[in-house]
Amino acid sequence: MENQKTKIYIKLGIGALLIVLFIWVNPWSYNDPTERTVVTTQGGSQKVVFGPGIYWAGFFAKEVAWPNQISVSYKDSVAPSRIEMEDNTIEIAQIGIRFNDATTAKIAGITQYILPATETEMLEIHNAHRTPEALVKRRLAPYTQECLQSSAQLMSSEMHYSGGRAQMVQDYLDQLKNGAFLLKISTLNTYDSLEKSYKKLYEVVIKTDKNGIAMRKFSSIKEYAISVGDAQITDVDYQAQVDNMLAKKIDAATAASISKQQLMTAQQQALTAKAQGEKKLVETEYAKKVDQTNQVVAAETKVKLAEQYKFEQKMAAEAAQYAAQKVKTEADAESYKNRQLVAAGLSPWDKADFEMQTRVKVAEALSKITLPSVYMAGGNSGNSQSLIDALLASKLIDK
User: Fold this and answer.
1) What is the pLDDT of residue 100?
2) pLDDT one-digit tens code per residue, 78-98
3) Among 145, 175, 219, 249, which one is most buried in terms of CB atoms within 10 A?
4) Which CATH code, of 1.20.120, 1.10.443, 2.60.120, 1.20.58, is assigned to 297-398?
């Protein structure tokens, strides 16, 4: 009985040992969709498995998983004690740069590198670096730092702060993809508005060939067909000296802007006052011209009214003259008639009575004539004399 139990235990032990041995030497393996795996067989041959899923690796094969993309992050202010990959990203800490005015800053950001999709280049990367962490430490991190520092050398901290951020990112991405620029130093005389003096600055510019094309260093990542997916600069932390300098420039610019605004306001007020004065002057001049025009119109109206009145008086005088002439004619006729009657032998009494009646009739006729209030003598002396005779006759009758 004990022998049977012993045999069972031995079989179970052998089975467990075989299971462990199978697991250890399992020729099958699994590839994640975000990775490729470099497989080194027991015989020393190598291959790269790019596709996801289960694959045959072979007994006692050695496998190293590589991410399809590696992101180099430089966001932490303190460097990690160990380079480790987390979610296909390796943190190397913020990168120090120096602008061409000798000021410094700390750069935070992230750069994404894409590993080659061909087996030959992938095996070269694996055999040269062995692990993704080693690739980042020995190649990707130094290359990232070189391109960042080269981009910073192309501008001053003030230029970067005043709008050069986008230009720096553009230069940085350009160098990551095509290789770092070869730079040279040239002198530049510039005026410092704060210190009010000219200074000699050393400007860093890109070297170019005879065709004007930028000269570059050979890209160390292109050697292994590694490409750049994306690059971002998320923050630039200037040194305290730069912050103080920028604060002074901001204050000076703000003061200048306020002064300029005050000057513009004063100029605008002056223009407004001038315009208002000119407006009042025009209004006064216009009012005077209107008054002058009214006076002229009034004078012309008076003249025309006087002419009209004169014309009316003239017409009235002519009418009165015509009436007087008519009365005189009738009186002459009546007088002639009376003379004839007297000549025919009227008695003195009848003659006196007849003359009295004649005068009464003439006076009644003259009393019905409406004479003008103002008499303006005309040029015809004969007509005037007739009118005067008629008036005198009226006076005589009244007596």
Assistant:
1) 86
2) 888 888 889 999 999 999 999
3) 175
4) 1.20.58
